[in-house]
Amino acid sequence: MLRRPVAAVLAFLFIASAVLAADKTYSVTLIKVDVKKKMLFVKDGEDKKEYKVDSKTKFLGPKGGLSDAGIKDDRLKPGAALELVVAGNNKTVREVHLPERK
């Protein structure tokens, strides 16, 4: 008798946790890069945030090509407009979409 309500509640919790853990995309302005700590410091509107970059993070150019330099890419300069795909934990970056070279 309680099987259906319990199953419904468990299904709801599973779906809700999956939605909360989904990756999110942010358009940000780069403030600073710390290569040693593998951190990106950015500004999202008026909010300042910091994100961790790991070995799985992809650095993609404006035409979709992969950057071999990673966090040492010359396009990662203060003031650069970036698009970040951030993991559900809201701390780790999965993808960094770099601007065009000038």
Q: How does this structure look, described?
A:
With 102 residues, this protein is of the alpha+beta class. The chain has a single domain, classed as Copper binding periplasmic protein CusF (OB fold (Dihydrolipoamide Acetyltransferase, E2P), Beta Barrel). It contains one helix and five strands. A hairpin with a 4-residue loop joins strand 1 (24-34) and strand 2. 13% of the residues are buried. The model has no long low-confidence stretch (mean pLDDT 85).
In short:
With 102 residues, the chain is an alpha+beta fold. It has 1 helix and 5 strands, in the order αβββββ.
Number of domains: 1
Mean pLDDT: 85
* Principal-axes shape call: elongated
What percentage of residues falls in helices of 4 or more residues? 10-25%
Task: Give the ordered list of helices and strands.
Answer: HEEEEE
Task: Count all strands and give the number.
Answer: 5
Which second-level CATH architecture applies?
Beta Barrel
Distance between the termini: 67 Å
CATH class: Mainly Beta
Q: In what range is the share of β-strand residues? A: 35-45%
CATH-derived topology: OB fold (Dihydrolipoamide Acetyltransferase, E2P)
List low-confidence stretches.
none
**Strand neighbour order, sheet with most strands:** 1-2-3-5-4
Q: In the CATH hierarchy, what is the superfamily?
A: Copper binding periplasmic protein CusF
- Biggest sheet, in brief? 5 strands, mixed, barrel
Give the helix tally.
1
Helical/strand content category: alpha+beta
Rg: 18 Å
